[in-house]
Amino acid sequence: MKALFLEDVGKLALRDIEKPVPKADELLIRIEACGICGTDRHLFLGEFPSKPPVTPGHEFVGVIEAVGRDVTDFEPGMRVTGDPNIACGHCAECQRGRVNLCANLQAIGIHRNGGFADYAVLPHKQAHLLPSSLNPLHGAFCEPLACCLHGVDLAKLKAGSSAIVIGGGVIGLLVVQLARLAGATDVVLITRNVEKRQLSEKLGATATLDPSSGGDVVEQVTGSSGLLPGGADVVFECAGLRQTVEEAPFLARRGGMAIILGVLPQGEKAEIEPFDLLFREVALVTSFLNPFTHRRAAELIASGMIVVKPLISRTIGLEEAAGVISNPAIAGEIRTLVVPQH
Ligand code: NAP
To answer: I need a surface site. Which of 207, 269, 311, 340 has the fewest CB within 10 A?
Structure first.
């Protein structure tokens, strides 16, 4: 079979290797699609720690080809999505139920071989069933959706709440939809690209703003004649930039919340104004990974309640993956999926 390997920082190569044999508790998955996430580019650039040589790809969907001898809950032919984040279950954080903070967290596609390959192995406890009638490409969005679900869970939105989403990539466009599903009546998306703004309105955003059009973003949204005077109940930062992290708390209303989902490079600093946080009692919260949300994500994708088809910018074969991962995303691109040609 073919598998893409990160051989070292800055070095990706497609190799012909033996098909893996699932261990007693594992499934062998024939990969149908695997999304290229910003993290894959960070791994290539050495901006995110990994264990080369390793096959990247943590947003995968596929059909079970074989099961290990102890697996009783899945059988060959079933379509599954894999939760790539494997918690140990024993450390203090796992025992507190904070599995995303596990001291021994192992991620498929980072520490273990992932989905940019014809086949991958997956511990059965990390697998979640998807309908065989589902467009397999849609299954590749379960992992990012699971991360967004955690952020939206933390927001505790109520019917009639308001939300601002900063950044119209996959994460922002999924959060827009989840915020509406959770009951928000006003959802403002702030992003530069006009196609992403137009798409977000089809997906549930009630207003949009181009932050590059000039003027103060906070004033344009929260000012008395702004899009959401006084600010939002919850602001979701989904761009991963210093400027947008700094902006987020100021876009929240008095007593509101700013939730940071975006990832800034390790070591990068952003300024906050504690006086403003305190006097307006704005909560600054972070949301990391997908604790116990992957199954709900699979159910939301399977039900069609979350729309992902327009988030697919293009599909490519395994042969093209190294070239795409080693270059920055094309302007306007939302998600590229790698589809192995079996
Ligand atoms: P992405 O495609 O890079 O999306 C970020 C978007 O931000 C871009 O599409 C860009 O769209 C927009 N943007 C750039 N400058 C902006 C500005 N000044 N104001 C508003 N928007 C701006 O990435 P993604 O896959 O959606 O992921 C978003 C972030 O979440 C990344 O940092 C990623 O690492 C992180 N993430 C976190 C988790 C977690 O568990 N917390 C999980 C997955 C991903 P325009 O060109 O339209 O502006």
So the answer is: 269
- Residue-by-residue DSSP string for 320-335: HHHHHHTSPPPTT--E
Distance, CA of 291 to CA of 250 (rounded, Å): 28
Cβ of 295: how many Cβ atoms within 10 Å? Answer: 14
pLDDT in tens, 118-163: 999 999 999 999 999 999 999 999 999 999 999 999 999 999 999 9
| Cβ–Cβ < 8 Å for 53, 7 | yes
Specify the residue with its C-alpha closest to ligand 1, atom 30. Answer: 262
Residue 244 Cβ contacting ligand 1 at under 6 Å:
yes
What is the three-class DSSP state of 309?
Answer: helix
- For the chain, which residues score pLDDT lower than 50? none
Residue 268 Cα to ligand 1 middle (Å): 16
Q: What is the pTM of this model?
A: 0.98
- Give CATH for domain 2-141+308-338: 3.90.180.10
Output the CA 280–ligand 1 centroid distance in Å. 27
Tokens coding 160: 């009639």
